[in-house]
């Protein structure tokens, strides 16, 4: 029987001179390419225009990149990056944090809603449907990079990340089959997309905050739990009772629950009522 899956995929797709196209970059871009048509369909059905989505997407891209980069720098290695601030701009060297990306998205969408007179929760309820697709793409990018790996495991679907030479407890990562935690998170995001899209089709988008509250609660509850199967990203996390990903997930879960309670008290609103 196959006891594990050997994962020896190159993170690079191809190179043209000094330019290298990587799987992570492609999948990060695909997160926006795939989601825009879905978001346009949702907006048309709810009485809005494609132009609204085009503008919204630009805000999303900027908010995601800036938030994810600053989140990585400030949450996981603040001493180094505050001492070497120019390094913050070197996104091509890696280092994006999903919790920071979440904060960046929330702030950028707030600015979008304020400028274009949209109801904030109305926008959040619809954007989380496609954010789930984006999350699935980005976690697949992590898998292609053989990064953010799981702990050693003997499950038959464990991956042996032969290209990952990080040291954990004095042992190189490639020595042990491990949980493919990136795949777990990617598949969960696919499940969230199907769930949220189905609920939206059945009219749940008319209840302000329901889809957003459900998404945040489920996603970050899962993130909290799956962290028990993952290796810590930074050494300082080894001294903490919970790792950084778990600490950052707790307030987001609480926010999601609070929004669900709020949504439970809201009447259905007409689809075209925006601001």
UniProtKB/TrEMBL annotation:
Entry-linked InterPro entries: Lgt
EC numbers: 2.5.1.145
Key words of the record: Cell membrane, Membrane, Transferase, Transmembrane, Transmembrane helix
Enzyme class, broadest EC rank: transferase
Any single Pfam family the record assigns to this protein: LGT
Entry binding sites for a 1,2-diacyl-sn-glycero-3-phospho-(1'-sn-glycerol): 139
Pathway field: Protein modification; lipoprotein biosynthesis (diacylglyceryl transfer)
Family from the record: Belongs to the Lgt family.
Protein name as annotated: Phosphatidylglycerol--prolipoprotein diacylglyceryl transferase
Organismal lineage: Bacteria, Pseudomonadati, Bacteroidota, Cytophagia, Cytophagales
